[in-house]
Design brief:
By secondary structure, the chain is mainly α. About 65% of the residues lie in helices and about 0% in strands. It has 2 domains: about 80 residues, no CATH class; about 220 residues, Up-down Bundle (Heme Oxygenase, Chain A). Helix 11 crosses helix 14. The radius of gyration is 19 Å and the shape is globular.
């Protein structure tokens, strides 16, 4: 994969830094961010995604030594601080209204059950056109083609029952020993079946800032050890909010008469995530909070962030499709 083209001043500054020919002597300037919020800003989110990718698959035209270069890490920290600050601000009210349960598993599942945001999956099931379904699949590709990879960074930071439970879930996510059942592979097949590009990162410059943020926040929580509990809560919320929407989306794909390969990924998640939501909420998060009760608020913060970004993405797509003259894809 090649380094993506810049789309604004922030991604341009990061791109210039990553194209340096001599990492040993490189000293990058401090990254300058806009005064406006960066959580939905495509330029800032593309810059952060690009830096994060150095810790995943990297770029063919970027020196691997730059992953931990102090100048690049400094840029990453500047972006991360702003993103985290904005996340805490926009979720503050929601965090104060969370259902109160002594059991963290019950609390997480109640939090997901109380979600009343835009019903994107219902629209995809009943009303979406084939073009809108493809638009949805394209927007989610940045996140789903690396599905479960961020959460694998959480494993070495856990111990005991929580570690065992997360490893069990990751085994399923990675195909349970069958490469052809790897969830990333199933999503790539859905893209191919609907005429889309299945290459990793193919649409990173086309998707919205919100879609990039949804992928980046997983990396934010997974790559910073201090945010481990937030990463666990984020993961549990995604697992607990996946089964029913996946059923609806599979039904929508079939209603449109798209190839069977396009719905296989979603059928897989109907069955798998009905089990995974319990394991993630009760076995992973339950075991972690039992050992670290002081981290409950941080874990719930991660869950609220996942639901907030899902709601933002759903609202953005519905607005784009229902009001195409005024909708903005990447802000």
């Amino acid at each position: 994969m090649q380094l993506p083209e810049a789309c604004g001043p922030v991604s341009r500054q990061v791109g210039r830094a990553l194209r340096t020919q001599d990492p040993g002597d490189f000293e990058g300037p401090a990254l300058v961010l806009p005064e406006e919020p960066v959580l939905t800003d495509h330029d800032a989110q593309l810059a952060l995604w690009t830096i994060y990718e150095l810790s995943y698959r990297g770029f063919d035209d970027v020196d691997d030594r730059l992953e931990w270069h102090p100048a690049i890490v400094g840029m990453r920290l500047t972006l991360e601080r702003r993103v985290e600050q904005e996340l805490r601000e926009v979720t503050r009210d929601r965090a104060g209204q969370m259902p109160d349960h002594a059991d963290i598993g019950d609390q997480l599942l109640a939090l997901v059950g109380a979600e009343d945001g835009p019903r994107l999956s219902s629209y995809l099931r009943r009303d979406a056109t084939a073009a809108e379904m493809r638009d949805y699949l394209r927007e989610r590709s940045v996140q789903q083609l690396k599905e479960s990879d961020p959460q694998s960074f959480l494993l070495p930071r856990l111990a005991g029952a929580a570690k065992t439970a997360l490893a069990e879930l990751q085994y399923d996510e990675y195909g349970a020993g069958r490469p052809e059942r790897l969830h990333q592979t199933l999503y790539a097949q859905a893209l191919e079946a609907t005429g889309l590009d299945s290459r990793y990162g193919a649409y990173v410059q086309e998707v919205s800032g919100v879609s990039l943020a949804a992928a980046n926040v997983m990396s934010l929580f997974a790559l910073n050890r201090r945010l481990l509990p937030a990463g666990l809560g984020h993961f549990a919320a995604l697992e607990a909010s996946s089964a029913l929407p996946s059923h609806r989306i599979a039904s929508g794909i079939e209603r449109l008469g798209l190839p069977d390969e396009a719905s296989t990924y979603f059928h897989e998640h109907v069955e798998a995530d009905a089990v995974h939501e319990q394991v993630a909420a009760r076995d992973v998060c339950g075991a972690y909070v039992a050992a670290h009760p002081e981290d409950r608020p941080a874990l719930l913060f991660g869950a609220v962030c996942a639901l907030h970004l899902e709601a933002m993405s759903g609202a953005e797509l519905l607005d784009r499709w229902q009001h195409p003259a005024t909708a903005v894809v990447a802000s």
